[in-house]
Amino acid sequence: MVSSPRIAIDAMGGDVGPAVMCAGAALAHSRRPDLSFLLFGDESAIRAELAAHPAIAGVTEIVHTPDTISAADKPSQAIRRSKTTSMGRAIAAVKAGEAHAAVSGGNTGALMAMAKLTFRTMKGIDRPALAALLPTLGDNDLVMLDLGANTESDARNLVQFAVMGAAYARVVLDLESPRVQLLNIGTEELKGTDELKDAAAILREADYLGMRFEGFIEGDKISRGDVDVVVTDGFSGNIALKSLEGTARFVTDLLRRAFTSSLRSKIGFLISRPATELLKHHLDPNNHNGAVFLGLNGLVVKSHGSANEKGVANAIRVAARMVREDLTRKIIEDLDNISAHRIEQAAK
């Protein structure tokens, strides 16, 4: 177990670049002084931003990289330029053992392609998945995957996603046995695709894993707080995620419009401000920033491109916690348990 994680950061990734990435690193370090950083990007731009954060000067190393990946770059183009880009070099640093995890706010497709090519998938995993924390009305957030890495997934993939999602939930949510459900169009056992029904049948028998499989969940129940891990294919997962994000923006914009429509509304806003501030905090994506590529032989966290320093700090926190808790080892142990169970069943 690593007690002092070193995080490789693509300082040029995201909408703002070095300014927010350096500020986020400084905020993360103020919360956990055992962190250190390896920053990749334009050295002069990074040094200019770090001047405002002297507290991390002694725990930060800058590696100049002359090239960056833009939002318009295709994954194939990014891979060809990986050795000269801040994103590619940050991932390579983890592969080389120079850092324990990488964080980037850049092009998601390029980041996924580079990470998969560099680390390869873990033994027992056919496809990696993109997982993220989402807010709920319950006592804790929930883990949802896949959010876009795979447009199609068979039953075997969904079972693997459930294993990885449960392991991740045990690490980031401190849950001994996370509640796991498959996203479906209904909760009845006969509903859904063959892939969903087959995956559910396998998971119902997987009581030897560190999870509680509780069947299917519909999209309108995701945020109720009754589930810890929601599993789906990347196509449906990405649509569900964007729908949730759009609804959150709709609610906040609607409240803003309502509270500014008249003098009486403005007075009402002042009276209800504590409640609206709580709502704003709960819906702020920066408080849940940091999507993770699960299933690779290396740790990579995707920060939202529009994240502010608080969001970047949260993405770094997620990366550091995965390092400290040795998430990769926990996933491997669960996969080994599945293999052992299959061998045992075949021998009967």
TrEMBL record:
Keywords carried by this UniProt record: Acyltransferase, Cytoplasm, Lipid biosynthesis, Lipid metabolism, Phospholipid biosynthesis, Phospholipid metabolism, Transferase
EC number(s) reported in the record: 2.3.1.274
Top-level EC class as recorded in UniProt: transferase
BP-aspect Gene Ontology terms: fatty acid biosynthetic process; phospholipid biosynthetic process
Predominant subcellular localization, coarse grouping: cytoplasm
Pathway participation: Lipid metabolism; phospholipid metabolism
Subcellular location: Cytoplasm
Signal peptide extent: none
Reaction catalyzed: a fatty acyl-[ACP] + phosphate = an acyl phosphate + holo-[ACP]
MF-aspect GO terms: phosphate:acyl-[acyl carrier protein] acyltransferase activity
Cellular component GO terms held in the UniProt record: cytoplasm
Subunit structure: Homodimer. Probably interacts with PlsY.
Function as written in the Swiss-Prot or TrEMBL entry: Catalyzes the reversible formation of acyl-phosphate (acyl-PO(4)) from acyl-[acyl-carrier-protein] (acyl-ACP). This enzyme utilizes acyl-ACP as fatty acyl donor, but not acyl-CoA.
Family under the similarity heading: Belongs to the PlsX family.
Entry-linked HAMAP family: PlsX
Protein name: Phosphate acyltransferase
Originating species: Allosphingosinicella deserti
